[in-house]
Amino acid sequence: MNEITTKKLPKIPHSHFNSLKKLEEGYWWYEGRIIWASKFILNWLEKNHFTDPTYYADLGCGTGGFGLAIKNKFDLEDIVLVDNNPDAVNKISTAACSNILTTDLETDFSLPFHPNLITCMDVIEHLKEDDLFLNRLFKILKPGGLLVISTAAHPFLYSSWDKKLGHYRRYSKSALVAKLTLAGFKITEAYYGWSFLFPAAPYRFMSSHRQEKLEYPVVPRWLNQTLIAASKWESKLSTFIPFPFGTSVFIAAAKESK
Q: What is the dihedral of CA 81, 168, 34, 216, to 10 degrees?
């Protein structure tokens, strides 16, 4: 079984987005996603010797910090931040980004420009019709463009914690690769990430029914820095030693030029 789907999911409380906003201040999970995405984007830019401006869309942007970090890191031409939750979008500074959209990602939404770079970080597991969403992304992305996507890994780890977070499913790497390929994308890189956390995953699975809050756990500064460093090393090593498991899936997929 490649995915688990549940019909009814609870509404994510407003307080959860306060927690997500705080993660932008250097939390390991937040920084780790930037590390993985940056690896994919840098490889794409170097391979294609990009000279044209890069127009960037972060779909399911949450409170906006990830997308803004990527734009600033690569000095991208323009950015649009998109999310379907006004509680999240309202926490984004309009001074930092002028293109901020609140829209349902499961509809035929439109953007102010056609991006040649799209990120969807921990988004697809929140959508009922994931196949339709990937088809839309393929149409929106410019030929030669790149999609960077991350999601919760391993269907057997689906728990009440996932349900509280609004996850319809978790994915195996092979299942998500198959869905992206069916939508028309060419997979350029695909890895399991945070493999070093996988031994602790069963504890999350078994204890999730007792967790009332959705917030990520506070960790000591030394541990936070250690997890960030481990994420950097893992992203580098994965090119040579792809890990067979992890708590997330990270994939880069291209839309080939005609």
A: 110
Q: What is the pLDDT of residues 207-255, one digit of tens each?
A: 544 455 656 778 899 999 999 999 999 999 999 998 999 999 999 999 9
- CA gyration radius for the chain? 17
Taking a C-beta distance cutoff of 8 angstroms, is the pair 112, 79 a contact?
no
Mean of all residue pLDDT scores within the chain: 88
Instruction: In whole angstroms, give the CA distance from residue 134 to residue 181.
Output: 10
Helix (H) or strand (E) holding 23: helix 14-23
Q: Where are the domains of the chain?
A: 17-254
Query: How many Å apart are CA 106 and CA 83, to the nearest integer?
Result: 11
* 56: confidence class by pLDDT, cuts 50, 70, 90: very high
- What beta strand segments (E) does 143-247 contain? 146-152, 186-193
Class of domain 17-254: alpha beta
pTM of the prediction? 0.90
Mean pLDDT of 26-39: 96
* 221-237 vs 28-48: helix crossing angle, rounded to 10: 30
122 close to 152: Cβ distance less than 8 angstroms:
yes
pLDDT value for 25 = 83
| Tokens encoding 240 | 């040579």
The burial of 134, by beta-carbon neighbours within 10 Å (0-12 exposed, 13-18 middle, 19 or more buried), is given as buried
